[in-house]
Each structure stands twice: as structure tokens, then as C-alpha cells.
Write a structure and sequence with these properties.
Length: 245
């Protein structure tokens, strides 16, 4: 089972969009995929109109998560709760232990975890549970700052928590025709050159159907499978699957 975290310390760079569309592409390709929303703002939960009685809050704070896990993974998503931030002293391995249970390990090929743009007990849990980190970023000045912060965070995780996570940068909302995006793609590629972060060859182009499908609450691949957004997310997903092998 592959567990992938989407995280960037910068907001609004398509973390949730990436988690959702990679999961939907994986499902289309026949992989059983669980989504987990660890962002207290609940974007993924809201986009999927999921309303569970047992959320990540109950699961992560339970002394006996095994007893409620089945209810929590209803419809292949563990939903978020607005009070998730109250779990500020959560043991870093809580989520890892839950994902290691047979109710999840025996069912799913992939788990994709969406996060808030912050480093806290929840994002630490997400990183500690994952074997891959996907860093969505925009190719612009503020994107640069986000990725710079991520390189510092990964050094800290390695040093303090002895976890050397495989990290991949994914350019999102990209317009290859603009000089700005192309220049910043080069600048960011240079920035990660001497780090453990690798660049995915695929980038996700700016694509209106991404936003439209979210507004309508429908699956991008069903809404417009010929859109640049759907094509690019499918391609990025195939690239990620190949890395596995
Ligand atoms: N390739 C794209 N083309 C067009 N719009 C996009 C694309 N990627 C993301 N968006 C839009 O950009 C906005 C921000 O995306 P998203 O919510 O996924 O970012 P985020 O990093 O999860 O934000 P936050 O930090 O608030 O959690 C959304 O409205 C989304 O629909
Ligand atoms: Mg988000």
C-alpha cells in the first residue's frame, strides 16, 4: 500500500485539487484508493459532500480506533472536522498505526492525505505515515517561498524524526505560454537540485474545468475527461505509479 501526503507550507497551490484528482485518476485506473482529509478547513470533505459521523477527529483521538475504523472509511474517504486543530499534542505515529490496521491495509492500494498549509501535529502525522510526499506548487515568486520552506521542513523531519521521505514537486495551475511560469519553473528546478526533492516531468496546466467541476461537485474525469486538467492529472498519476515500480 502506497501512502501519499500532499503538502506545501504555502496556501492555495492546489494541494486539495491534486489530492482529489490523483485519487480519482487512481480509481479510474482500477486502484482502490482512500482519501483522508486532515485539513481543519475541510475543503476535500466539502468538495465531496461527505458527511460522516466518525471523522478524522474521532479516529485520531480514540483509544480504540479499530472499533470505529470501518465507519470512518465510509465511501473511501476519512472526513475532516473543524476541531482537528485541538489535537495539538497527538503522538506523531498515531495515523501510521491506524493505517497499518488490516481494515485499511487489506483493502486499499493507495491512501492520499490532504493537509492544511502548516506544520503541526497533524501534518507531522501525515508525513510520518506516508512513503511519498507530493508538493504541489505554482511556478511564481510565492511558489518559490513555499518550496524553500518545504526544503527546510524536510531537513527538520530528517534530523529530528529520522524520516527521509521521498518528495516530488508538481507544478500546478501552469501556463506554459507565459514567460513567468516558464522562468519560475527553471528557478524552482534549480532550487531543488541539491535537495531530496525530485521534479515530476508532468505539470498540471491551468484548466477551467478543474474549477467548474469542483463548483458543481462532480468528478473532473466524468465532467470533462478531454480537458487539459484531466489529461495532466492522469499523466501525473501514471508517473507516480511508475515510480512505485
Ligand atoms: N490547474 C488548475 N486550473 C485551474 N484552477 C485550478 C487549478 N488547480 C487549482 N485550481 C483552483 O485553485 C484554487 C485553489 O486550489 P486548492 O483549493 O486545491 O488549493 P490548496 O493548496 O488546497 O489551498 P489551501 O491552502 O486553502 O488548502 C481552487 O479554486 C482550484 O479550483
Ligand atoms: Mg486545500
Amino acid at each position: 500500500m502506497e501512502i501519499i501526503t500532499t503538502l506545501n507550507l504555502k496556501g492555495g497551490v492546489a494541494k486539495t485539487t491534486t489530492a482529489l484528482n490523483i485519487a480519482q485518476a487512481l480509481r479510474q485506473l482500477g486502484y482502490k484508493t482512500l482519501l483522508i482529509d486532515l485539513d481543519y478547513q475541510k475543503s476535500l470533505t466539502i468538495l465531496l459532500e461527505a458527511n460522516h459521523k466518525i471523522t478524522a477527529l474521532e479516529l485520531l483521538s480514540s483509544k480504540e480506533p479499530g472499533a470505529i475504523i470501518k465507519e470512518a472509511i465510509k465511501d473511501d474517504i476519512i472526513t475532516s472536522h473543524e476541531d482537528l486543530l485541538t489535537l495539538d499534542s497527538l503522538d506523531p505515529l498515531t495515523l501510521k498505526k491506524i493505517l497499518d490496521s488490516k481494515e485499511i491495509k487489506n483493502i486499499y492500494d493507495y491512501v492520499i492525505i490532504d493537509n492544511h498549509c502548516i506544520f503541526n501535529a497533524l501534518t507531522l502525522n501525515s508525513l510520518m505515515a506516508s512513503n511519498k510526499l507530493l508538493i504541489p506548487t505554482t511556478a511564481n515568486k510565492l511558489g518559490y517561498i513555499g518550496v524553500e520552506d518545504m526544503t527546510s521542513l524536510l531537513s527538520l523531519i530528517k534530523k529530528v524524526y529520522k524520516k527521509n521521505i521521498e518528495a516530488y514537486l508538481l507544478f500546478t495551475d501552469f501556463n506554459p505560454k507565459t514567460d513567468l511560469n516558464s522562468q519560475y519553473k527553471d528557478i524552482l528546478t534549480e532550487l531543488i537540485k541539491d535537495t531530496n526533492i525530485k521534479l515530476l516531468d508532468t505539470y498540471i496546466r491551468h484548466s477551467q474545468p478543474i474549477e467548474d467541476s469542483q463548483a458543481l461537485g462532480v468528478n473532473l474525469f466524468e465532467y470533462s475527461k478531454r480537458s487539459n486538467g484531466a489529461k495532466d492529472y492522469l499523466e501525473a498519476t501514471k508517473e507516480l505509479i511508475k515510480i512505485k515500480g
